[in-house]
């Protein structure tokens, strides 16, 4: 649109004149067969693709571990405890090797703590692994900041939250 002029719409050219005009005719309808029926439940789809019948080479424990890793099933209390043990062992290895951020220093972490990392990643859901690694970095940074503030003379405040009614 040239400068200084407002855009105008020509609606008359877009409206068909009569039902018999070529602009009003539609192309012929082409019918395609419907897709095969599928379950509306994602878990049933996962079950179909996760196992290959009696030819499957994985044990039920391996399949359960893979489902937990993928986040398709919730871990039991014992499986969560196993995950936390693996996490603590992995973090202890990172501490021994002075590695703070395992996500940024992935090569160094893999070289120094490869075995612990494999156990950690096998026993925990993938999203948990990422969450714990990020949480560790933030926790270390928080502790360092608290030390800096205390060195500058700041007073430590212990804050407790309870949900008891105030009197």
From TrEMBL:
<keyword id="KW-0496">Mitochondrion</keyword>
<dbReference type="GO" id="GO:0033617">
    <property type="term" value="P:mitochondrial respiratory chain complex IV assembly"/>
</dbReference>
<feature type="compositionally biased region" description="Pro residues">
    <location>
        <begin position="30"/>
        <end position="40"/>
    </location>
</feature>
<dbReference type="GO" id="GO:0005758">
    <property type="term" value="C:mitochondrial intermembrane space"/>
</dbReference>
<feature type="region of interest" description="Disordered">
    <location>
        <begin position="1"/>
        <end position="78"/>
    </location>
</feature>
<feature type="compositionally biased region" description="Polar residues">
    <location>
        <begin position="7"/>
        <end position="23"/>
    </location>
</feature>
<dbReference type="InterPro" id="IPR036549">
    <property type="entry name" value="CX6/COA6-like_sf"/>
</dbReference>
<keyword id="KW-1015">Disulfide bond</keyword>
<dbReference type="InterPro" id="IPR048281">
    <property type="entry name" value="COA6_fun"/>
</dbReference>
<protein>
    <submittedName>
        <fullName>Cytochrome oxidase c subunit VIb-domain-containing protein</fullName>
    </submittedName>
</protein>
<keyword id="KW-0963">Cytoplasm</keyword>
<dbReference type="Pfam" id="PF02297">
    <property type="entry name" value="COX6B"/>
</dbReference>
<dbReference type="GO" id="GO:0005634">
    <property type="term" value="C:nucleus"/>
</dbReference>
<keyword id="KW-0539">Nucleus</keyword>
<comment type="similarity">
    <text>Belongs to the cytochrome c oxidase subunit 6B family.</text>
</comment>
<dbReference type="InterPro" id="IPR048280">
    <property type="entry name" value="COX6B-like"/>
</dbReference>
């Amino acid at each position: 649109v040239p400068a200084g002029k407002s855009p105008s719409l020509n609606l008359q050219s877009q409206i068909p004149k009569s039902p018999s005009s070529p602009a009003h005719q539609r192309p012929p309808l082409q019918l395609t067969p419907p897709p095969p029926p599928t379950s509306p439940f994602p878990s049933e789809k996962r079950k179909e693709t996760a196992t290959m019948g009696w030819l499957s080479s994985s044990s039920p424990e391996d399949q359960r571990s893979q489902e937990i890793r993928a986040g398709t099933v919730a871990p039991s209390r014992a499986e969560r405890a196993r995950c936390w043990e693996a996490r603590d062992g992995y973090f202890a290895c990172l501490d021994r090797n002075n590695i703070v951020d395992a996500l940024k220093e992935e090569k160094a972490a893999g070289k120094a703590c490869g075995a612990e990392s494999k156990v950690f990643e096998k026993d925990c859901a993938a999203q948990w692994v990422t969450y714990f690694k990020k949480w560790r970095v933030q926790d270390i940074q928080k502790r360092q900041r608290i030390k800096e503030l205390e060195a500058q003379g700041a007073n430590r405040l212990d804050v407790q939250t309870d949900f008891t009614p105030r009197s």
